[in-house]
Write a structure and sequence with these properties.
2 domains, six-stranded mixed β-sheet, three-stranded mixed β-sheet, 9 strands, ClpP/crotonase-like_dom_sf, Enoyl-CoA_hyd/isom_CS, Enoyl-CoA_hydra/iso
Length: 231
Amino acid sequence: MTVRSERHGHVHTITLDRPERRNAVDGPTAGQLALAVNAFEQDDEARVAVLTGAAGTFCAGNDLKAMAAGDFPTPTADGPPPMAVTRSRPSKPVIAAIEGYCFGGGFELALWCDLRVASTTAEFGLLNLEHGLPSLDGATVRLPRLIGRARALDIILTARRVPAREALDWGVITTLTPPGEALATAHTLANRLASLPPAALAAARTSTLDQPSLDEPTALKQEAALALQAH
């Protein structure tokens, strides 16, 4: 298995585990990731997920050797993306715990998460553009919404490596830790979220995630409706 899952209390941890490929995702791994996320969604006792990578690396992106060998299905606008889960929104919070490489599809996977905790070893970037591979897992949609269009274009169009400190300053990540401490810090944060009343947390999260696509009066009305349902 190249994706491991375990739950302690209300926190479900999903680990990409292909250290020989720096946790790059091939077709079978993408399938296992989808199954792991679905298991989290279906587990009523799991309130928060932590997504991480084994052996000091989050995810180096899509496995280019596997792609060249035809390991991935041919991508389509309506079909699943290479990372399998990135065109859907998880119903519960997901926190990325990032050490080392977070490139290409791995960066897009981190952007799919609600929060990103990274150590000073982390590096981010869409290096896939250097290989003529445009984004298929949401970077060009989520990154501008997260940090603004100008800074997103800087990262996207240059295909450069972004160090952890700059990622923190630009709002790509939410918490910076010393080397080797991203996962423990993410678990502490996850336990904090899991300790909050689930209905109130879900209402606040849904309102926050939905509001960019709504005009202000509609967003305010939805906020009120969600809050009253959760009360």
